Every structure is written in structure tokens, then in C-alpha cells.
């Protein structure tokens, strides 16, 4: 009992308030921006997106502290069954999922609707980290192909079938990131680069044939936004207008027009950065980018200071996930990347995404807070 109390005191003393403060700050900025983007303009309008996000934030904070309360090593013990549950949920979506925005991605249980792919990305990181932990030395080409087929191929196919191209891309990036962190033979890295470069035209053609019309339109809009500015290029053009109209210092909070006046589609989800940039300008945008940079650097530092390889891989995978979501989302709003339905972590409206992000942040805090156990 005395030892248990001593460990609890060490955990509280070493709690990672830095990461916690960053994600809370981003979430508050997100709720403020969601309110500004969806605030009522007419008396009969009563949008409550910001209130729903507050409820999910409170649930996320509760989940974070629950995750921190037990040693993260337990996650490795349940990694395989949790991954299997995740695959089952993705399969259920294909047959019983709710369709919205041209994609079948949501499950509805009573009054609650959630997106299993948002939860699965974390399950995927955990199982890959667990499997890599069991391997010794650097991995050869045969090993990496076997692991890809065992854990990545099936969810990729299911996600593309939904279709959820954004999450599929994220999954692939996370697998490659964790493979590099674990250690690949140099010849394997060179070979993968060559194979990847040569197969781009063939894979691109196959993927293009499998895409829905709205997904093809998004890619066309990215390549040539002026081809149909009132149609397929509308999202990107309105996003650029919102960001550009913010200027250096912005129009001021609650003074933006693109979001509240409904010019900008998906303003509280995929394009929330454009709403923020319009109101806070270049200076505010740089400040926001620095907050995300602090989160990414904190995650990398946590990976370096982890007490074991499982913690190192877990922290690296979560940091890669946050980084990829951030860069793709901001790239979408700036028009330098195609629109693939990727939310901005902790800021975009969406309960499932916010909850899974807080669980991921809780795992990061758990890993960093327990690094002291190496020294006792």
C-alpha cells in the first residue's frame, strides 16, 4: 500500500501539465471558433454546435485522466483483441452505417452517432507498437510486407470502401512512420522509395477508378480550382478568400463573414482554420501554428524519454497522427492539398474525433509521467 501511494505521488508530481495545457488551449480556441462560425444570424436560428463540443470536451478530459490513472503497458496486453474489435466496428459500418456527405462512416446507437474510423486509428497505433515491440533488430523487406498484410491491408480496403480516403491515407502514413522509428534496413528504405515512385501511376489509376464522383471532383478542384469556381472549386476558393481577407491582424473575433454568412461550407469541421484565420489574421494564425508545433515537439520529446520501446513507439505513432492531421487540414484550407475530409485536431467540431484525440493525449501524458520509473 505504501509503495502504491508513493507511485501515485510520483505520478502526480511528474504529471505532464505541458501537453495537458496545450490540448485544453486548442480545444477552447476550437469552441470559440465553432461558436463564431455557427452563431445565429436570425432570431429563429438556434445552432448549438459549440455546446455539444463543450460536452464532448468534458467527456474527453474525463477519459484523459482515466487513461493516465493506469500504466500504459496494459495497452500492450489488450492490443490484439482491441484491434479485432476495431476491425469488426469498421465492417459493421459497411453494412449498417449511416451515410452522410456521400460516405458511409457513422454508426448510430440510440441518440449517439459516432465514427468508428476515428477510434480505430488509435487502436491501429497500439497494435502496431505492440507488434514492433516484439521484434528485435532492424526489419527486412519480408518482415515489413508481412506486417503490412497482417495489420494494415484489411483496414485500408474497408476504409476505401466506405469511402474514407483521408483516414486511409493517415493509416498508411502512421504505418510507415512507425516502421521508420522501429528501424528499417537501409536497402529496404531505398527499395520502398523506388517501388513507390514506379507504382504511383498504376496505384493512382486504380484508386481513381474506385473513387466516388465527389472525391474525383475534389481532386479536380485541387488541380484546377478555377475550372468550376461555383461548383467543385467552391470550397477551396471560399477558404482562400476567408484566409486572405483576414490580412495581418484579422477582422476581429465574431467579425468574420465567410463562416456565419454561410459562404464557407464545412466551416465548423474541415475548414475551421479558415474561419480562425479570417478573424485573427496572419499573426493569430502563426500563434496557432506555434501551439501545434509545441504539441508535436512535446510528443517527439516524450517518445525520446519513454522508459521502454512500447512507450517510444506509441508516443511516436500518436505524434505522427497529430502532425499528419494538422498538416493535411491546414494544407486543404490553403489549397495546397486536395480536400480529403481531415479535421483539425482538438479544434474541428466532432465528438468522436475530440474524444479519441483526448485519449491519445492521455496516452502521451501517461508515457511521459511514468518515465521516472526507470530511475527507481
What do you see in this structure?
The protein is mainly alpha-helical and 376 residues long. The protein has 14 helices and three strands. The longest helix is centred in the last third of the chain and has 34 residues, at 272-305. The two termini are 17 Å apart.
Give the helices and strands, then pairings.
Blueprint: H1 2-13, H2 17-38, H3 49-68, H4 73-77, H5 79-96, E1 98-100, E2 103-109, E3 112-114, H6 116-133, H7 141-161, H8 165-182, H9 186-210, H10 213-223, H11 234-245, H12 272-305, H13 309-334, H14 351-369
Antiparallel strand pairs: 1-2, 2-3
What's the short story on this structure?
With 376 residues, the chain is mainly alpha-helical. The chain contains 14 helices and three strands. It is globular.
Number of strands: 3
The largest β sheet comes out as: 3 strands, antiparallel
For the CA atoms, what is the radius of gyration?
A: 21 Å
Multimeric status of the protein: single chain
With helices defined by DSSP (H or I, 4 residues minimum), what is the helix count?
A: 14
Residues in helices, as a percent range: 55-70%
Globular, elongated, flat, extended or rod-shaped: what is the shape?
A: globular
H/E element order: HHHHHEEEHHHHHHHHH
State the separation between the terminal residues, measured CA to CA.
Answer: 17 Å
Hey, roughly how much beta strand do the residues contain?
A: under 5%
Order of strands across the main sheet: 1-2-3
Q: Give the averaged pLDDT, no decimals.
A: 82
Parts with pLDDT < 50 across at least 5 consecutive residues = 1-6
Helix/sheet category: mainly alpha
